[in-house]
Amino acid sequence: MAVKRTASEEKMQALGLVSDSDFVFHLPLRYEDETQIHHIADIYPGQVAQLEGVVENVAVSYGHRKQLTATFKDATGKISLRWIHFYGSQKAQLEKAGLIRIRGEVRGSSMWGYEIIHPKISKAGQSLPQTLTPVYPSTEGLTQPVLRKAILAALSRVDFKDTVPEEIKEKFHLPSLKESIFILHNPSQHENTYALLDKTHPAWQRIKFDELLAQQIALYLARQARTQLNAPKLTFDDTLLFDKVLKTFGLPLTAAQQRVIQEIKQDLLKPYPMHRLLQGDVGSGKTIVAALTAALVLQNHQQVAIMAPTEILAEQHFYKMKKWFEHTSIEVVWLSGSLKVKEKREALEKIQSGEAQLIIGTQALIQKGVEFANLALMIIDEQHRFGVGQRLSLSKKGEDSQLDIVPHQLNMSATPIPRTLAMSYLADVDVSIIDELPPGRQTILTKLMLNERRDELLNHLRVECQSGKQVYWVCPLVEESETLQLQTAVDTYQYIQEYLPDLKIGLLHGRMAAKEKAQVMQAFANRELAILVATTVIEVGVDVPNASIMVIEHAERFGLAQLHQLRGRVGRGDIASVCILLYQNPLSNTAKYRLKALHETNDGFEIARRDLEQRGPGEFLGLRQSGEQLLRFADVHSDANLVEKAREGAMLFLQHYPELAHQHVERWLKGKTDYLRS
């Protein structure tokens, strides 16, 4: 018979607190100092003070809003108390309270008087704790005392076997795990509170080092495991297909493009599967590198799949590949969720039979029913836009379990991954960087403009369009939202049509049918439209060389990497290009930071570094979509020095203590290692 859990136990389980180990590593968010009683004469604004005294002058006021007020005094002075939310009997309770202890943040000034709003009240005369009081991450209905009691019970039972050998602890000057855990849960009043709060205390350093160490070990083990797998066998004796695609492309490759193709070729000749990330700023020429890589594999009579996060980007790839492989025998097939039943069935049959050699599509490629004949290479564009689970799914589509054959994998990203992030998450990934732009690419001038100057901007655009230039106008939403009162793509389209009736305006958004979207994009590419009003479906991959002006509406609402991607849609021809960021006051500090960064630099790596500071690693790596958080305690940006030490420690660990390494990884990652593989 199953044991019925209490409401508190159910709430703890919802927080992931099941085993003693879960409770032990459920570490405090902050601490309250209840180890001393302060005197009113010594308090100051911003201090969290604990006072002992009596309450007088309790009253309910009925001004702008109903409030409960009182005066609290001790032997050294008085302070005001105030409750904005209170219950009926509270006034009588305070009047009869006698000597009590209160705790709360001091507000106000010495000139106008101090007050505490909604103080925490307890009995006076109780013995004071000898340690700081931890405050844990919790959920509604789960109180701190209940959580503290459960954690203390777990601390008394858990096995504190240290999985880090003495040699490594001594090398990196680490305290013991048990000592660190006990300090974090019950720090004495003499511990450095600031170091505890900003996680620079030696106890925190030990916890973060252990977590990063486990991650580094797991990544090295993942690389090791990959080298034990078999990759599809490829040779490059025949380069006819490669040469034909390059000739159709019609432009010379940059030195950077030639270098990364050589790096990829070396990987494809190895007996184990390639796992490479191709990074390059917006417009650096990643797509032709992907096409030439595909050609290397296709000339071995094996299949290649290219997966993109949006239908419009996947379609752009499809049309480019069709064009570049036009004079070859390669059949390029399109697969997306919007295909009609008959078209989809035909595509699936061609993929399964091997008749379709180059398959391009959206996440429809990983859906049930898609079976490849001999998938040898998968190329994932804008890899961080897919969840890690989706990337794993495509990899597993091409696996041959009987022969242990796993397809090669090339991930592409126009969002450069900063060095600390690459060290932390990509130890199992080889990175190629296209670090130069093709000749003729324009430097894009970025301007900031208040939304109130919209009509002035439209008058300027009329003149520019009449001279033959084309404009993207990007909006964040398709329809009006009650919570975000933003100008929408539909409304903007109608407004610009009315304001500029002499110009042809197009509209593009994600809810349009695939065929309709393709027609609009083609019309814009053919210069039949002067202005294209669009949502962020044009963020990546769209290539119209004549478009030289980008207007981003409500730029304060976009992420930094997304703004940089959108800006990269212009500057692709020989016309001087400009990106205009329309913004609405008042701006949050985050929005100011983003707009300032975009205004100051066009460097994708600098943009990525600043973006990492703000958003953390989840968006860069596609971890956000999975709901998984691989690092709970360490931060790859602020703990870069620990990442370096953990890498060094991982190598020592694996060389000298391989049996302990697996135990350490299991303690800290608990089955999340599969996510590191993708």
From TrEMBL:
Record-linked CDD domains: DEXHc_RecG, RecG_wedge_OBF
**PANTHER family, A to Z:** ATP-DEPENDENT DNA HELICASE HOMOLOG RECG, CHLOROPLASTIC
InterPro entries membership: ATP-dep_DNA_helicase_RecG, DEAD/DEAH_box_helicase_dom, Helicase_ATP-bd, Helicase_C-like, NA-bd_OB-fold, P-loop_NTPase, RecG/Mfd, RecG_dom3_C
Q: Which GO terms describe its biological process?
A: DNA recombination; DNA repair
Q: Where is the Helicase ATP-binding domain?
A: 267-434
Q: What does this protein do?
A: Plays a critical role in recombination and DNA repair. Helps process Holliday junction intermediates to mature products by catalyzing branch migration. Has replication fork regression activity, unwinds stalled or blocked replication forks to make a HJ that can be resolved. Has a DNA unwinding activity characteristic of a DNA helicase with 3'-5' polarity.
Organism in which the protein naturally occurs: Pelistega indica
Name the EC number(s). Answer: 5.6.2.4
The reaction(s) this protein catalyses? Couples ATP hydrolysis with the unwinding of duplex DNA by translocating in the 3'-5' direction; ATP + H2O = ADP + phosphate + H(+)
Q: What Pfam families has UniProt attached to this entry?
A: DEAD, Helicase_C, RecG_dom3_C, RecG_wedge
Q: Which GO terms describe its molecular function?
A: 3'-5' DNA helicase activity; ATP binding; ATP hydrolysis activity; DNA binding
Do you know which SUPFAM superfamilies this protein is assigned to? Nucleic acid-binding proteins, P-loop containing nucleoside triphosphate hydrolases
Report the protein name in the record: ATP-dependent DNA helicase RecG
**What keywords is this UniProt entry annotated with?**
ATP-binding, DNA damage, DNA recombination, DNA repair, DNA-binding, Helicase, Hydrolase, Isomerase, Nucleotide-binding
Which residue intervals define the domain Helicase C-terminal in the entry? 457-613
Family of this protein: Belongs to the helicase family. RecG subfamily.
